[in-house]
C-alpha cells in the first residue's frame, strides 16, 4: 500500500505556485471548495488545484507527484454522477479546462485532434461545420468535455447505432506518473501494432495518467434525421415494440424508453397536458432515424409498420423543424422526476437487451417493497436503463431505504447478466459494488495493469478496483 | 528473462497425452509439421500440439505450462500472414478448432455467444438466419475463426462503415497462464465497470491468455446492398473521387481501391478482357452501400453525382444478383498479382486517409528504385493499403531488394503518421519493426501489461513487444 502524502507542505505549495503561476494554482479554501464535488454531490476538499495550459506542465506535475506520493485527481467540468472527480484522499486536483485549444478537424483524414478540455458539443459543432460527424452524444454533451467523455467512456443517446466513446477514439497522448509521455494510436483508422493501450485509456477514469491530446474518428454528417414518439397502453407492449422495430431490420440512432411513472412526472409539469402523446399512454418509446432523406423516410415507414401489431395508442412523427418537439418530452424527464419526490438516487444499470422488461418490472417492485417510487427511462436500445429511486430524505429512514433499494437493484442487474453501470461509471459512490461485480480475480488484474502505468497508485486513488 | 523449457521431456509428453487423450495430443513429427507454419510461410516446429475440447482442459494445460515455463502458441486456422501462430520457440501449439460449438445467437439480446474455433462466416450465417448481422468481414472470413479474428483484431472490407473486430466484442472468457479464468464484459451493450480488459484482449495475439468464449454485439441485417465499380484515367482522380464521395455525406460499407499495376495483373488473367471496367481505366474504386432499398438507391445517386466532376471513364453499378459481378474484379486481385512475378511481400500499411495518394505514389517509387513492381490495392476508405512488392526470389539479390523495399515502405507509413500494420498484425515477420514504431517506452508498458496476465511470458513468446 502506498503511503500517500497526508497534507500539503509549504515546499509542496511553493513547487505548485512556481509551476503554475498566477491563478494557475489555487490554494485558498474558498477557491478549493469549487473543486471538492461533482454532479454526485459527494464532497472532499483538495489541498490544491492546478490548471495546466500545456503538456510540459503536466509532465513536471506528475514527475513531482509521483515522487511525493501525492494523490492526483484529474477533472474537467465535473458533470460525472458517481464522484469520479471527487478528491477523496485530498491531494491535488488537476483541472484540464485550460487545455482547450481549437480542435483540428481534418476533412481529408476524417479525424479530429482535440485537447481534453474542449466541450464535446463544441467539437461536434466544429466537425459539423465541415460536414463531419462525431457521433457520441452523452446527455451532458453541451457541458462535459471530450477529455471527461474519454476518461469515462461516455455513452448516450446514439450508442445504439454508433457505439460509445470507445468506438471513436483512434489515439491518445497521455502523461504518466513520473512524467513519461505515452503516445498510443494515431490518425490511422486501422492500427493493430502492439497491445491496444489507446482503448485501455478509454474509461480508465484518470487512473492510468492524464490525457493531453485525443484523436477521434469522424464520419460524414448524416443528411437528415426524423423522430417518432410512440405511446403504448402498457409497459409490455412498448418493450415488445422496440423488439419488433429491431427485428424489422431498422437500426435507429436513438431508441429511448419512458415508463408510466416517468410520463406522469412529465405530465405534472408546465405544458404537461399538451405533450404529443395520447393521454392513455402508460409507456412511450422515442426513436430517431438518421441518413439520407429517402433512406430515413423508408425506415420510418418500416418502423411504423413494425409497431402497428402492438397497437400503439399514439404515433407522433417529427420531421425537420418539428423534430425537436417530440424530443421535448425526453429532455424534460430528468428535471420532471423531482415532482415525484425531492431527492433521487439515479442509477444507470445496463442489462442484456432482452432482459429490459424484467429489469424494469423488478426494479419497480423493489421500490414498492421499500415504499418508494422508482422511475425508469433511458437508452432502451442498448439495454441501459436509468433507474431513479425517488425519495424524501427529510423523512426518517427514507434515505437508508433508498440506498437499500439501490443495492438490490445493482444485484438485480448483475443477476440478469448486466452491469451496475452502463455509462456513468462507478467512481466513488459505486466503488464497492464495482469490486463485487468484477470479482477478486478481475480486480487484481486491473490493479496490476494500473500499477504498470502508476506504480504508486497516485492517480485518482480511493475509488475501488 | 524467462528460462523457457528447451525440449519436451518424457514427463511433459505423458502429461499432455493424459490430458488430451487419443488424437487430442499430437507428438509425431509428421503430425507436428502441419502446425509449424501459417499463411506467412514462416516455419518452426512445435514439440507438441494439443486440441482442447473445453475450458477445463485449457485450465489444466495453462496451469502446467506456467509451472514448466513451456511456450504456448494458440492457433486456429493459421490464416495469419505475419507468423503470429508460428511456434518460434518450439513449445506447445494449442489448436482451438475443437472448441467450435454451435453459436448461440440471441435475437432479443442482439448478441452471439461463440466459441473461438467457429469459422467467422459460419457465425455470420447463423446470425443472418435470424435477420442479424455481425459486420466484421476480413478477406479470410470463410476460412478464419472468430477466435483468430478477435486475437488479431481483424479488419476487412466493411471497416470503413462498421469498424473493426474490436468494435463488436462485448465480452470474453479467457484462461490465463497458471489456470485462472477471466470473465470480462458480458451481454450488455454498454458496460463501464472497471478497466476495459475485454478490448485489451482484442488484438492481443494470444499473448495474454487463451480465449475460450467470445460475446459479440449484433445489429439488424441490412435489407439490401448495391455496389459500383468506377474506373478513372489516373490515380489522382480516383483518390480525389473517394474524397468527394465521403464529402457528399455518403458512408459506404466498403470503399476499395486498385491501382494501375493491379488492374493490369487482373486483365492478364482469364476473362480479364471482359471485366466491367473501361480499358482506359488506370485506377478503380469499388463501393458498396447497404441499408434499406430506398436508402441505398438514394446514396447511390449521391455517390455517382459526387464522382461526376472527376470524370470517371466507366461506372458499373451492380444491384441484386448483378452485384457480385462487380466484385469479381476485386476478388481476383490477390491471385492475379502472381502474374507480375512469382513471389510477393504483402504488407498492409495504414495511413491517415488523406495521405493515401502520397503513400501509394511513394511506395511505387520505392519499388522502382529497387527494380521491383509494387502493386497497391485495398481498403482505401480507412487508409489501409495492401502494398504488394512483387519479385522473383530465384534471381540473385532480388529477395534482399524486396525486403529492403519493404523496410522503406514501413518507414514511409510511420513518417506519414500511419502504421506498419492496419489489420494483419506484426507477429513474427514484423516484430522488430513493431518495436521500432512503438518506441521503447510503449513497448515497456506493453510488456508490463502482458506480465500482469502472464508473469513468465509463456504465451506466444518471441514476437516482439
TrEMBL record, chains A, B:
Coiled-coil region(s): none
FAD-binding PCMH-type domain: residues covered: 42-221
Keyword Transmembrane carried by entry: no
The keyword Flavoprotein appears for this protein: yes
Required co-factors: FAD
InterPro entries referenced in this protein's UniProt entry, alphabetically: FAD-bd_oxidored_4_C (IPR004113), FAD-bd_PCMH (IPR016166), FAD-bd_PCMH-like_sf (IPR036318), FAD-bd_PCMH_sub1 (IPR016167), FAD-bd_PCMH_sub2 (IPR016169), FAD-linked_Oxase-like_C (IPR016164), FAD-linked_OxidoTrans_Type4 (IPR051914), Oxid_FAD_bind_N (IPR006094)
Protein name: FAD linked oxidase domain protein
Pfam families: FAD-oxidase_C, FAD_binding_4
UniProt entry keywords in alphabetical sequence: FAD, Flavoprotein, Oxidoreductase
